[in-house]
Each structure stands twice: as structure tokens, then as C-alpha cells.
Amino acid sequence: MEIFLGFVLGCIASMLATIFLNAIPSYRQHLLLSLLRNPRLFVQLHRDTEQRRIKTLIDSLFRAWEEKNLQKYIACWAGDAVRVVGPTNIVVDHLPDIEEGFKKSVARYRTIRVLSVVIEDIDIRATNPNEAVVEAHYRFQLTRESDLLPIHEEATEFYVLRRTDHQGWQIVSNLDHSKDVAKG
Question: Rounded CA gap, 31 and 44, in Å?
């Protein structure tokens, strides 16, 4: 009897979870899952903390991309920054390449809409509190200039940041999973 009851309750819980998740848009699901996985970060992002300053930088990066504002975008990066294109790739872009990739990206797309940016983790290194690793999940829509077709994408990227005296935090490196946007 207990096994049968457990089976029935498991089926009911599974159906309720499916209904619940289908009712929530995918970008909100990421936010909810992030909160459940790391509730401490959620609190830190809503107070005056280093984590909030880091999130503000990442938000500025994506807002600059959406606005197609090269100066604001490059201001988020350190002068010695690198971007690794693709998780198994050995292609490394330096700041001039990052700038050129940005220019090509904004020229290729009529509109860039960042639908959501969810910071899933911020690890300020205990051994070096002036360095942080950020895991960011984002969802975006691009409208191609050539045929006006919208493209919906989502990706998870990693950023290494360095604390600076005069500007707070800057991106030192980025693992860019996006192939179409980053490549010319």
C-alpha cells in the first residue's frame, strides 16, 4: 500500500511540476531556478554589495550591446581583456578583436533585444578578492538586417572580472559560446 501511495503521489507531483513549469516563460524559469540554487546570491544582488556592482557591470555590457553603443560596451572591458570564442576553441580575441566583433554584430542586425540576463553565480575569489568569476545566462532576439527574420537565442557565458580602483570592476576574460554573433 505504501509503495502504491508513493507512486501516486510521485505522479501527481510530476504532473503539477510540469503544469507549473509550462505556465512560466523560460526566461523566468531560469530566474526561479537560479534563486532556488543560490538564494544567498539573490539577497546579495538586492543589497549594496560587490555582487550587485558586478551584476550592474554585466547588465551595462548587455545594455550597450542592445543600444549598439561601442563606447559603453568597450568601457566594460579591461585593456588587456581576452575573449575565448567557443568552449573547445583555441581562438582568443584581444580587445581590438572584441571591438571589431561588436561592430560586425551591430551592423549585421537591425535590432538587438536582450530579453533577460540572469546571474547564476558570482564567485569572488577568497584567495584574491579583487578577482571574480561570473556565470551569466542570457536570452536575446536578433533581427537580421538582410531579411528581417528574428532569431531567438540563449546562452550561458563565463566572465572573469578584476576590481579596479577607479572604475569598480572590469571584464578581463570571457568564454563566449555564441558562434554567429561573435564571428564575422
Answer: 15
pTM over 0.70: yes
Residue type for position 38: N
Beta strands, E only, 38-167 = 77-85, 92-94, 109-124, 131-144, 150-164
Is 95 within 8 Å of 170 (Cβ atoms)? no
DSSP assignment string, 127-164:
S-TTEEEEEEEEEEEEEETTT--EEEEEEEEEEEEEEE
Angstrom distance (rounded) from CA 182 to CA 83: 10
Residue pLDDT, tens place only, 128-150: 999 999 999 898 999 988 888 89
pLDDT in tens, 5-45: 788 878 887 777 677 656 666 656 666 667 677 788 788 87
The C-alpha cell at 20 is: 507549473
Residue 161 corresponds to which cell in the numbers above? Answer: 572580472
Q: Is residue 87 within 8 Å of residue 174, measured between CB atoms? A: no
Query: What is the spatial distance between Cα 59 and Cα 55, in angstroms, rounded to a whole number?
Result: 6
